[in-house]
Amino acid sequence: MVDDLQPPTNVFYDGKSARVHSVDVACSDLSLLISGPTLKEPVEWAYSDMRNVADVASEKGASFRVMDGLGRLNISDEDLIIRLKKLALNLNKSDIPANMWKRISIWGAGAIVSVFAIIFVIIPSFANQLATWIPVEREIALGRVSLNQIERLLSYGDDTNLTCKGQKGQAALDKMTTRLEDFINSPYPLDVKVFNHEMPNAFAVPGGHIVLFDGLIQAADSPEEVAAVLGHEMGHVFNRDPTRLALRSAGSVGILGMVFGDFAGGAVALVIAEQLISASYSKDAEANADVFAHMLMANAELPSAPMAKFFGKLYAEYGDGPEFLSHLASHPDLIGRAKAAENADTIGDDPFDAILSDTEWNDLRQFCANTAKDG
Fold it and tell me: How far apart are alpha carbons 195 and 199 in whole angstroms?
């Protein structure tokens, strides 16, 4: 019976894919060893690098991470949690360098206390309205800084440049972007990139920057599926959703940085970058971006049914739960959205001019693989 099923004691999210791993955890003198049947190889975390993830911990368990890592380990075994708290002495230590906090403190101390008191309380509550007031050049600058931070967060090893390069792949991406961009009046020029990362993800950051992950392109069966996702992200850009998310995430210090062009040495941008990767928009924002994508595909004389197919494929592989780590994470309901995309299709079975030729589609799929030799 369903009532007899118990959730796994230890659950691990590797930060590289959307898969949820049920794992065993073993403690040694200096490190924690994470192993399980679905992991390619055991994962070892040094106790000194482990940190609490207080904002997602449940009452009956705890969640942990390591510095500069996207992986998460959820543990519900209270005895193991108590033991870890004795072994990992830096769980509550901040990852932000002390000198960075010093810069923020010096900068803040120079302002008038009464003015800051008003800003700290009032400005964050008006994020939606402020998103339309922030100068465009500030949005673009914040977007560039956020992208740099996101690349650092997602990179493994010393190479922090995830952007795929190459003439053929870039040409295919530009052709796809232009076909859709011709039908929108964006508040800023669009800058679309592909990141060499296996996660099936895509997101937009302030200032018209959009990133497609290679994992998403590889998961698609046609360029129209990728175009539909790109159209969805263009909807977020057009509605300035990334800027609203950035304002809500950064708080008053970040808002002042966006107004005056000082991002506090990157500390605020780091906070914003972590939020933009998961892009936890409201349900209304996600629904509006979907409708925008449907209209954009129709105006470009392309079918929106591939968007429905793509959603259905993601649902079949990852399900419809909160563990599905993608650009749609805050509003999963993939089946409902797939039906909406199918119902909005204005092309149907009629022939259409493909957004990319077979050769161009292959160039886009090989974009990251050919970066080194075709750049």
Answer: 10
Cα 29 from chain centre: 35
End-to-end CA distance of the chain: 56
Helices (H), the chain: 78-87, 98-109, 113-122, 127-130, 136-154, 167-181, 214-219, 223-238, 241-260, 267-278, 283-299, 305-318, 334-343, 358-365, 371-374
Contacts of 321-324 with CB under 8 Å at 24 or more apart are: 323/13, 323/18, 323/20, 324/18
Q: How far apart are CA 79 and CA 32, in angstroms?
A: 15
Please give the share of the chain, as a percent, with pLDDT higher than 90.
29
Element (H, E) at 33: strand 31-35
Residue 177 has pLDDT above 90, yes or no: yes
Cα gap 324→336, rounded to integer Å: 16
- Nearest CA to 54 among 39, 43, 65, 68? 65
Burial (CB count <10 Å: 0-12, 13-18, 19+), residue 8: middle
Is the pLDDT at 95 greater than 80, yes or no? Answer: no
Q: Which long-range contacts (CB under 8 A, 24 or more apart) does 324-329 make?
A: 324/18, 325/13, 325/18, 325/199, 325/201, 325/278, 326/18, 326/199, 326/200, 326/201, 326/202, 327/201, 327/202, 327/203, 327/229, 327/232, 327/233, 327/279, 328/286, 329/278, 329/279, 329/280
How confident is residue 96, by pLDDT bands cut at 50, 70 and 90?
Answer: low
Residue 123's pLDDT is: 52
Quote the pLDDT of residue 328.
45
Domains parsed from the chain with CATH numbers = 2-87 (2.30.29), 100-374 (no CATH)
CA atoms of 353 and 358, how far apart (whole Å): 12
Locate 244 and state its tokens. Answer: 């609203």
**What does pTM read for this prediction?**
0.61
14: closest CA among 30, 48, 38? Answer: 38
> In this structure, which amino acid lies at residue 123?
I
Backbone angles phi, psi at 154, to 5 degrees: -90, -15
CA torsion sign for 206, 212, 215, 219 is positive
pLDDT reading at 366 higher than 90: yes
Six-digit token pair at 117? Answer: 């008191």
